[in-house]
Amino acid sequence: MVKRIRSAALCGLCAVLSGAGCEKPSLAGPGGSAGGPMASLNDSNPGANMKDELVRTDAEWKRQLTPDQYRVLREKGTERAFTGAYWNHHEPGAYRCAGCGQELFESETKFDSGCGWPSFSAPAATNRIETQLDDSLFMHRTEVLCSRCGGHLGHVFEDGPKPTGLRYCINSASLKFAPKGEEKAEEPATPGPATRHPGRNPE
Ligand code: FE
Hints:
By secondary structure, the protein is of the alpha+beta class. The chain contains four helices and nine strands. Bound molecules: fe (iii) ion.
């Protein structure tokens, strides 16, 4: 589904203010508490995917990821608008986590938000992502992370298309696209034995 729902003006302004990313002011409720659909999303996702969580050392991540992937996924960086591989990408298929290979989003939910970053109206499954409040850069936003490796993906806003009303604004560097029919063809290269434990608490 490709649908332009909003102008790039707001996102462009926010990118200027924040340095990058889909950092338009969040529509979260007073006190930074996310309301509406995002509250439901959080409530439906307690301890998601805990047994499959993947934890690597910082050195392992640096070996596995490109510098851009590491900056976004592990240091919560944001790529510049209209520069990533997938903001204007419309092939059918699946978008997997560039860190751990978990399928995060499907092309059917991707839409053109006009903000310069890949935008999705829903994750592939609610237990594929985790959310947490992000009060950085003088804004109240809801950060989106991969539930398996804890990698930073982007933010979610309440100005998306129906039926979810959500806009998952995701960095291309956090994603790896798999064309339709090849969705399960490849996992990211592993740097060696990974440490798996259920107690990880995303930053
Ligand atoms: Fe991941």
